[in-house]
Inverse folding.
C-alpha cells in the first residue's frame, strides 16, 4: 500500500503568474464585444433571434446575477440594428361600430404625421364649417327653403279660405282648430236666421261645408309631410355646403395619404360623418361639440418615429396591463368614461416587429400576465382586454379595440429551476419557447483564457466605472475567480459577484488614494467581505476554543474522528470540523445511524451509511455472518446532517470502534466512499480545510495537523494564504486519498493489509484486527444463540436506536 | 323686472297698458311683459278678453265640425261646448291677470266683451295707450307667424303696439330702433326705444334707412335729438336695401327688441312685414 504524500503549496493553489498577463493596467485593454466563454448562449441567441418560425421564442437560463439581462440586451441591440423598423399603429374611431375602435397600420414614423394632419383638420373644421353655415349663400338658401315651405303650408289653408269665402262661407279659428259657417258681409249668419233658408240652400251650404272640411283635413294632414320634406331638404343643403367646404382639405389629405389605402378609407368615413352631422357644426355660440370632434382624433399607440432598427423592449413590470395594454377611464362627476383615445398600448405593442425581454419570475408572479403573454403568442394578435373583464368581474359596456397583428420575439430570463418546472408543468411552454439559451456558470481556465478574462474584467470595471486594475490585481482576481468557481481549472462567470468585488476594490483604492486597483485592494475587498460575514463562523470557533463544542486536534482516540462539514449562510460558506463517534458490539449486522433514527439525517446521508455497512460486511465477513451492532453519531450536531461527504470518516471511526485501534485526532477527514472502499470527490473542500485549519490555529500551534481529502478533489483546491503558508512550511498536511485503506493507514499508522487467496488478512495488520474482532463478536453471538439467551442480545432492531448495554 | 318703479314722466301723458288676452300660451307671456312695462311706467293695466261672435255663432250650426289644427280630425262643435270653453278661458285670463298684476301692485281691470276682436280693441284703445298682444293667438293658422288680429291691429291701432314673442336668449342684446330717414314720427320711436333700453338695461341702436346724399342731415338731426333727451345710442345708416338686408343688419346688431315706426317705408314693401315677423323678436310698432 503506497501512502499518499502530502500536497505541496503549488498543488493546493493555482497561481496566476503576472507574467502570463501581457499588459500593465487594464486601461490598455479593449472592451469585449462578445461575452467571454458564453458561446452556447450566443449561438442560441443568434439562432433564436434569427429564426422566423413561430414558437421559436427564447428562454435564457442562468443563475440570478449572472448578467443575463445585460448580455441579452447587448446582443439584441446589435442584432436588431440592421433589421427594418416596424410600422406605427394607431387607433381611430370606428364609424360603423363605435365600441370597436379600428386599428390603422402606417409606415414607421408616419403615425405622428397622420395624427397632426387630423388635428389640423379638426381645427379647420371648427372654423370652416360654421363659417359656411354663416355665409350669405347658405343663409339665403336656407331662408328660401323655409319660406317656400311656409308658403306652401299657408297656401293650402289660404286657398281653402278663399274657396270658402267665394261660397260665402267663413273659416273661423277655434281654440283647437277651425270650423266653417255660412257668412254674409264678413260676419257669420245667426243660426236662427239660417233656419229660414230654403232646404236647397241649406243643402248646398252644408255640402260645401263638408267638402271644405275634407279639403281642410287633407291640407292639415299634409303638414307633417311638408315639415319632413323641409327637414330633408335642409339636411341635403347642409350636406352640400359641408361637402363643398371639406372638398379642399380632404382632397389634399387624400392625395398625401394615397400610399396608405386604409388612411384614405378612414378619411372618407370621417368626411361622411362630418356631412352627416353637419347641423352640429352650426354655430350656437359654443362651437361644435367636442365629443363629435374627438371622433376624428388619432390615438397613436405605437410610435416608431425615433426607433432605429427593430425595437428591443425590456418590460420591468410585466403585468397584464403593461404587456397587453389597457383601456383607461376618465372620471367625470363620479362616473367613469372612456373612448378610443384612452386606449394605451403595452410592451407587446411597442415590441411588435422586434424583441421583448421579460423576467420569467416576475411575469409568473403577476396575475394573468403569463396567460396573456401565451395567448398573444399563440394567436399572433394583441387583443386589449381589462383584467377585471378577463376574470368576468364586470360586465359594463366597454371598448373592444380591433386586435393588432403581432410578430414579436419574446426573450424570457430566468433561473434554471424555473425553466425545468415550466417545461414540466406547463404544456404550452415548450411550444412557445423552443430555444433554450443556457448560461455558462464557469469558464475554462487555461493559458489562452487569461487574456480574454482580463479583458472581461477590464470591460466590467469600465461598466461599473471603477478604476483601472494593474496586472497584479487582475492576477489576484483571476485566482479568486477560480476560488469562487471552486476549481483550479475554472473561472467564475458570475457577473454580479465580480462586479461587486470590483466596486468594493475600487472603494478601497479610493480610500487609499490610489489611481489603480492593485492586488492589495482586491485582497482587502475579499477580506472585508469575508469579515463582514464572519460572525457565525467566529462564534462557532469560539465555542470550540472554549470547549463547549468538543474537538480534539491532537492525540489519538478510539471510536472518534474529526469529520468536516460546510455551512452555507446567505452567500457565504464556511467549514468546520464535527466530531463523529462510533460504538461497536456483537449484534445482527446492524449499523445504526443515530442521525437517521432521530430524523436529523437526510436520505443521502442514510444512503452513505448503508453503503459503508455493506462495505464492512463484504470486506470483513464475505462468507460469514456479520455479527455487529454499531452506532454512528455526529456529536453536538443539532441541526441535521445531509450528504455523503462524511462516509470515509464514518468508516474510519467505525473500524476504529470495532478494532479498538485509536485514530489520530490531528487529522480531519472528508470524502465519500463507494461499496468497494474507493474514495470519491465531495464539495466545499476549500471551506472544509480552512475551517479545520482555523480550529487548529486557535487551539494552539499548527504543527502536524492535516486533512485527508479525496484525490479527485485536489484540482478543486484554492486555499487561502495562511493555509498555503502552513503547507509550505510543512506544519499542515493535505493528503489526497483514493481508497479507504490509505485513510486507515494515515489515521492509525498501521498497515491495512490485503487479504490473501483465502480471504485472510496478514497478521498484525489493521484489517486483521478488525476481522478478528468481528469473529469474536460472531462467536459471542453464536454462544448466546445456543444458550437460548436472546433477551436484549444486542439485537438492535434499529427502531429504538437502543443502547442495549449488557 | 327687478328695476325700481320709475316716477312717471310728467311730460308724457300716462296712457294705460292694454293687454289682449285669449288664453293662448303666448298671450300669457305677453301678459308678463305688459306687467313689467306697466310697472316701469306706473300705468294701469286693462285686460281685454273678447268672445269672438263669429265663433259663437258658427257653433250654433248643427252641422258644425271643428277640424283639429294639428291632427286634422273633425269632431262635432256645439254652442254649449264653445260657451263653456269661452268661460273657462275668460276665467283663466282673469286669474292670470290678477296674479300677474297683484305681484307688482299694479291696478288692473279685465274687460270682457263679445264681438269682433279688432273692433272691440280699437273701441277701447286711445292714442296714449300701449297695446300688448301675442304675435299669434290660438286662432293663428298653422304656418303663419303673425295672426290676422295682430296684423290688423298693428296697422290700425291709434297708439303703440307691442307684438310680443318669446325673445331668443341673448345675454348681450340691444334694443334696435329702425327708422326711415324721411319720416316724420321718428322721435316717438326713438323715445320708445330709449325707454325699453332703460328698462331692460340694454344698449340702444338706431338704424336709419337712407338714400344716398342726405346722411349728414339725418345723423345730425338724430344726434341733436338724442343729446337733447340725454339718450346714448349707436347710430348706423343702412342703404335702402331689401327687407332681407334689414333682417341681416338686425342680426348683426344683435337685436333683442325691435322698435319700428308704422310709417317706415319697410312696411310698404311687398312681403316685408312677413320678413320682419320672421325675426323672433318682440316688436313695438309706433304710429
Amino acid at each position: 500500500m503506497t501512502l499518499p504524500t502530502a500536497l505541496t503549496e503549488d498543488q493546493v493553489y493555482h497561481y496566476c503568474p503576472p507574467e502570463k498577463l501581457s499588459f500593465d493596467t487594464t486601461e490598455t485593454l479593449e472592451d469585449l464585444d462578445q461575452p467571454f466563454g458564453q458561446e452556447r448562449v450566443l449561438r442560441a441567441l443568434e439562432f433564436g433571434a434569427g429564426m422566423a418560425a413561430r414558437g421559436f421564442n427564447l428562454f435564457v437560463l442562468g443563475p440570478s446575477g449572472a448578467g443575463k439581462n445585460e448580455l441579452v440586451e447587448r446582443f439584441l441591440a446589435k442584432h436588431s440594428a440592421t433589421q427594418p423598423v416596424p410600422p406605427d399603429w394607431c387607433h381611430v374611431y370606428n364609424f360603423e361600430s363605435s365600441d370597436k375602435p379600428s386599428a390603422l397600420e402606417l409606415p414607421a414614423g408616419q403615425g405622428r404625421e397622420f395624427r397632426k394632419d387630423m388635428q389640423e383638420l379638426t381645427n379647420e373644421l371648427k372654423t370652416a364649417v360654421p363659417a359656411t353655415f354663416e355665409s350669405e349663400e347658405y343663409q339665403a338658401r336656407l331662408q328660401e327653403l323655409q319660406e317656400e315651405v311656409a308658403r306652401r303650408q299657408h297656401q293650402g289653408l289660404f286657398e281653402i279660405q278663399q274657396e270658402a269665402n267665394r261660397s260665402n262661407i267663413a273659416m273661423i279659428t277655434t281654440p283647437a282648430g277651425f270650423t266653417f259657417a255660412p257668412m254674409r258681409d264678413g260676419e257669420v249668419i245667426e243660426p236662427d236666421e239660417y233656419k229660414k233658408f230654403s232646404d236647397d240652400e241649406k243643402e248646398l251650404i252644408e255640402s260645401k261645408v263638408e267638402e271644405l272640411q275634407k279639403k281642410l283635413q287633407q291640407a292639415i294632414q299634409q303638414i307633417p309631410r311638408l315639415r319632413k320634406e323641409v327637414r330633408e331638404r335642409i339636411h341635403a343643403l347642409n350636406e352640400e355646403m359641408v361637402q363643398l367646404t371639406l372638398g379642399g382639405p380632404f382632397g389634399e389629405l387624400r392625395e398625401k395619404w394615397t400610399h396608405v389605402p386604409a388612411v384614405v378609407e378612414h378619411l372618407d368615413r370621417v368626411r361622411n360623418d362630418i356631412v352627416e352631422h353637419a347641423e352640429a357644426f352650426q354655430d350656437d355660440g359654443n362651437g361644435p361639440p367636442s365629443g363629435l370632434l374627438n371622433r376624428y382624433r388619432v390615438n397613436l399607440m405605437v410610435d416608431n418615429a425615433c426607433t432605429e432598427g427593430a425595437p428591443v423592449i425590456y418590460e420591468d413590470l410585466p403585468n397584464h396591463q403593461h404587456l397587453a395594454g389597457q383601456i383607461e377611464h376618465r372620471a367625470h362627476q363620479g362616473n367613469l368614461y372612456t373612448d378610443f383615445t384612452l386606449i394605451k398600448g403595452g410592451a407587446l405593442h411597442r415590441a411588435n416587429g422586434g424583441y421583448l425581454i421579460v423576467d420569467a419570475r416576475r411575469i409568473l408572479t403577476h396575475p394573468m400576465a403569463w396567460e396573456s403573454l401565451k395567448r398573444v403568442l399563440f394567436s399572433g394578435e394583441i387583443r386589449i382586454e381589462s383584467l377585471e373583464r378577463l376574470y368576468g368581474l364586470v360586465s359594463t359596456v366597454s371598448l373592444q379595440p380591433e386586435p393588432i397583428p403581432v410578430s414579436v420575439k419574446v426573450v424570457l430570463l430566468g433561473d434554471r429551476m424555473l425553466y425545468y418546472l415550466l417545461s414540466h408543468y406547463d404544456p404550452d411552454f415548450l411550444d412557445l419557447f423552443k430555444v433554450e439559451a443556457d448560461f455558462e456558470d464557469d469558464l475554462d481556465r487555461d493559458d489562452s483564457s487569461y487574456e480574454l478574462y482580463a479583458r472581461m474584467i477590464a470591460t466590467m470595471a469600465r461598466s461599473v466605472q471603477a478604476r483601472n486594475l494593474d496586472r497584479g490585481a487582475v492576477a489576484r482576481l483571476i485566482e479568486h475567480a477560480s476560488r469562487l468557481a471552486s476549481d483550479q481549472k475554472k473561472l467564475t462567470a458570475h457577473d454580479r459577484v465580480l462586479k461587486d468585488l470590483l466596486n468594493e476594490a475600487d472603494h478601497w483604492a479610493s480610500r487609499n488614494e490610489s489611481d489603480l486597483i492593485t492586488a492589495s485592494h482586491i485582497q482587502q475587498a475579499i477580506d472585508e467581505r469575508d469579515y463582514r460575514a464572519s460572525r457565525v463562523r467566529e462564534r462557532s470557533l469560539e465555542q470550540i476554543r472554549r470547549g463547549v463544542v468538543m474537538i480534539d486536534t491532537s492525540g489519538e482516540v478510539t471510536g472518534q474522528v474529526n469529520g468536516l462539514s460546510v455551512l452555507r449562510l446567505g452567500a457565504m460558506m464556511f467549514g468546520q470540523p464535527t466530531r463523529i463517534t462510533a460504538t461497536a458490539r456483537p449484534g445482527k449486522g446492524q449499523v445504526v445511524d443515530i442521525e437517521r433514527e432521530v430524523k436529523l439525517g437526510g436520505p443521502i446521508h442514510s444512503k452513505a451509511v448503508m453503503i459503508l455497512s455493506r462495505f464492512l460486511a463484504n470486506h470483513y465477513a464475505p462468507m460469514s455472518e456479520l455479527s455487529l451492532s454499531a452506532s454512528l453519531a455526529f456529536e453536538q450536531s443539532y441541526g441535521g446532517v445531509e450528504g455523503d461527504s462524511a462516509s470515509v470518516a464514518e468508516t474510519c471511526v467505525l473500524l476504529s470502534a470495532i478494532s479498538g485501534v485509536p485514530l489520530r485526532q490531528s487529522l480531519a477527514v472528508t470524502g465519500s466512499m463507494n461499496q468497494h472502499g474507493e474514495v470519491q470527490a465531495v464539495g466545499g473542500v476549500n471551506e472544509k480545510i480552512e475551517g479545520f485549519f482555523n480550529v487548529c490555529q486557535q487551539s494552539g500551534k499548527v504543527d502536524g495537523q492535516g486533512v485527508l481529502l479525496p484525490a479527485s478533489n485536489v484540482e478543486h483546491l484554492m486555499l487561502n494564504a495562511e493555509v498555503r503558508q502552513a503547507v509550505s512550511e510543512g506544519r499542515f498536511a493535505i493528503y489526497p486519498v483514493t481508497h479507504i485503506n490509505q485513510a486507515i493507514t494515515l489515521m492509525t499508522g498501521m498497515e491495512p493489509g490485503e487479504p490473501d487467496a483465502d480471504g485472510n488478512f496478514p497478521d498484525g495488520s489493521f484489517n486483521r484486527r478488525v476481522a478478528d474482532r468481528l469473529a469474536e463478536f460472531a462467536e459471542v453471538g453464536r454462544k448466546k444463540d445456543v444458550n437460548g439467551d436472546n433477551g436484549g442480545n444486542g439485537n438492535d432492531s434499529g427502531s429504538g436506536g437502543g443502547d442495549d448495554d449488557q | 323686472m327687478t328695476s325700481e318703479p320709475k316716477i312717471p314722466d310728467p311730460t308724457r301723458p300716462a296712457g294705460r297698458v292694454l293687454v289682449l288676452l285669449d288664453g293662448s300660451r303666448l298671450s300669457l307671456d305677453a301678459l308678463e311683459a305688459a306687467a313689467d312695462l306697466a310697472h316701469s311706467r306706473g300705468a294701469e293695466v286693462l285686460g281685454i278678453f273678447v268672445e269672438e261672435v263669429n265663433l259663437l255663432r258658427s257653433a250654433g250650426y248643427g252641422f258644425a265640425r271643428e277640424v283639429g289644427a294639428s291632427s286634422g280630425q273633425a269632431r262635432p262643435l256645439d254652442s254649449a261646448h264653445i260657451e263653456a270653453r269661452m268661460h273657462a278661458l275668460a276665467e283663466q285670463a282673469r286669474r292670470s291677470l290678477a296674479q300677474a298684476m297683484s305681484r307688482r301692485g299694479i291696478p288692473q281691470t279685465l274687460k270682457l266683451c263679445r264681438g269682433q276682436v279688432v273692433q272691440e280693441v280699437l273701441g277701447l284703445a286711445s292714442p296714449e295707450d300701449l297695446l300688448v298682444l301675442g304675435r299669434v293667438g290660438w286662432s293663428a293658422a298653422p304656418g303663419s307667424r303673425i295672426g290676422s288680429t295682430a296684423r290688423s291691429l298693428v296697422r290700425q291701432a291709434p297708439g303703440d303696439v307691442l307684438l310680443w314673442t318669446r325673445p331668443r336668449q341673448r345675454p348681450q342684446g340691444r334694443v334696435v330702433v329702425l327708422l326711415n330717414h324721411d319720416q316724420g314720427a321718428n322721435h316717438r320711436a326713438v323715445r320708445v326705444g330709449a325707454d325699453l333700453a332703460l328698462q331692460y338695461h340694454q344698449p340702444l341702436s338706431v338704424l336709419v334707412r337712407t338714400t344716398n346724399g342726405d346722411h349728414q342731415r339725418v345723423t345730425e338731426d338724430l344726434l341733436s335729438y338724442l343729446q337733447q333727451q340725454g339718450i346714448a345710442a349707436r347710430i348706423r345708416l343702412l342703404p335702402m336695401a331689401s327687407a332681407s338686408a334689414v333682417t341681416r343688419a338686425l342680426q348683426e346688431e344683435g337685436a333683442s327688441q325691435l322698435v319700428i315706426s308704422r310709417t317706415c317705408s319697410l312696411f310698404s314693401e311687398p312681403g316685408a312685414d312677413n320678413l320682419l315677423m320672421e325675426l323672433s323678436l318682440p316688436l313695438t310698432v309706433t304710429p
Notes: The longest helix of chain B spans residues 79-104. The radius of gyration of chain B is 20 Å. Chain B touches chain A at residues 23, 52-55, 57-61, 63-74, 77, 82, 85, 89, 116, 138-145, 244, 248, 278 (CB under 8 Å). The longest strand of chain B covers residues 45-52.
